[in-house]
Amino acid sequence: MSLFDAITSNIPEIKGPTQRKLSFKEKSKWTLIILVLYFILALIPLFGLNPQQEFQFQQFEVILGAAFGSIISLGIGPIVTASIVLQLLNGSGIVHFDLTSDEGKKRFQATQKLLSVFFVLFESFVFVFFGGFQPFTSTFGWEMFLVFQLFLGGMIILFMDEVVQKWGFGSGLSLFIVAGVAKSIFVQAFSPFNASGEFVLGLGEYPIGKLFVFILGIASQDVEAIVALVALISTFVVFVAAVYAQSMKVEIPLSFGRIRGYGMRWPLKFMYTSNIPVILVAALLANIVLVVQFLNSRGITVLGEVLNGQPVSGLITWLSPAQIVESIVRTIFQSVPFDFLDLGRALVYMLAMVIGAVIFSIFWVQSSGMDAGSQAKQIMASGLQIPGFRRDPRLLERILQRYIWPLTVMGGIVVGILAAVADISNALSRGTGILLAVMIVYQLYEEIGKQHAMDMHPAMRKIMGG
Q1: pLDDT tens, 280-327?
Q2: What is the 3-state secondary structure (H, E, C) of the chain?
């Protein structure tokens, strides 16, 4: 056994279930337990943190499933970063994993877990020693204690994700994103408090909740009512567009070779790689901002400047979403001069999201067993074939390639556009997070309906359309 295998085989892991299939009730129980635990951890503050700390990268909190200032401040960032690095290394051929074999898949997963542990530790040090989280007294001991707490929280998230994967629905990464997005949307729609946490409803000041802003703005004939209404409409439009795009699919007719007259349709979704590319692109942009912040701490501003996690000048501002829709509203109703530089930034940001989504879609298809060759083997192993063609995996692979690669590219383009439009339209929460939440919930809906149509409660089955 090599040193690498010895290390990966000794990483602690969550033991999977011994039974072949878990019931709907059992999966629901573990998913709910992890969800409650996640919200509890989000309320546990980092001990020794400077009370005057201004949290950086606040705009990435929802996407990373994090709660800044708490023990889970790192969120899913290290796990997603490890996935990005491994995808790039495997896709470029620098390292190679045979993902067609069980052994290759195990090595890939073990390597990703080891990388995740490394990035949990690495990001803990980076956030503390480069100003992201400062102790109330700048001593090495307190800084290391903050690092320990961040590392502990990151490892808890890592194992919670593993629990959901093996015992619950979907993955912990998706669950934490949906939880963060739901919380953010609820707060930004209905909160009667201001940004400082003070109750201001009825005191002549606008709260965070856009619904209250709209009502109060209408009463006082303020343009803020229109801005709030646009934000609410944008959120609804993003939801509808995401659900519609997620429901589109191409169905390939198949037949059982040995049983005449029986067949099925093999579905290939238009959003073939689903929400994975957007998660990876968002995490990549978050890490770019982190690198620029690190350079700024060393007095290097060649890529621009970042203040409190927000790009404020230089090239880095072109990779952040400009609130172009709000600017248009204020130009129309307040005669505020329109900044065409914001339009340019919005278009560049959209282009970056689209290109990044397409690239990661291609990498994900190649490394996750979604390519035409893997799909052909899966179809053949099921005893299926395309009617009118001989039973040959190479022929089936060529036919599938006509669909899979166009769907991979087009799906990446559409998901990138949807995410970018949501980000620049001032939708509630972060637009990318809303898009991800819709797609995750839709996937869970399909997965639960497909796997547990018979063992769920009759009332739940009726809700699921069964």
Answers
A1: 887 788 778 878 877 887 888 888 887 766 777 888 888 888 888 888
A2: CCHHHHHHHCCCCCCCCCCCCCCHHHHHHHHHHHHHHHHHHHCCECCCECCCCCCCCHHHCCCCCCCCCECCCCCCHHHHHHHHHHHHHHHHCCCCCCCCCHHHHHHHHHHHHHHHHHHHHHHHHHHHHCCCCCECCCCHHHHHHHHHHHHHHHHHHHHHHHHHHHHCCCCHHHHHHHHHHHHHHHHHHHCCECCCCCECCCCCCCCCCHHHHHHHHHHHCCCHHHHHHHHHHHHHHHHHHHHHHHHCEEEEEEEECCCCCCEEEEEEECCCCCCHHHHHHHHHHHHHHHHHHHHHHCCCCCCCEEECCEEEECHHHHHCCCCHHHHHHHHHHHCCCCCHHHHHHHHHHHHHHHHHHHHHHHHHHHHCCCCHHHHHHHHHHCCEECCCCCCCHHHHHHHHHHHHHHHHHHHHHHHHHHHHHHHHCCCCCCHHHHHHHHHHHHHHHHHHHHHCCCCCCHHHHHHCCC
- How is the chain split into domains, by residue range? 1-168, 234-466
pTM, to two decimals: 0.74
Q: Are 1-168 and 234-466 equal in CATH topology?
A: yes
Cα 260–chain centre separation? 44
Q: Per residue in 45-66, pLDDT tens?
A: 999 888 877 666 666 677 778 8
pLDDT in tens, 155-197: 999 999 999 988 888 888 888 888 888 888 888 888 888 877 7
- Which tens digits make up the pLDDT trace of 239-264? 888 888 888 888 777 766 555 556 66
Fold of domain 1-168 = Preprotein translocase SecY subunit (1.10.3370)
Q: Tell me the CATH number of domain 234-466, given options 3.30.70.20, 2.40.50.1020, 1.10.3370.10, 3.30.930.10.
A: 1.10.3370.10
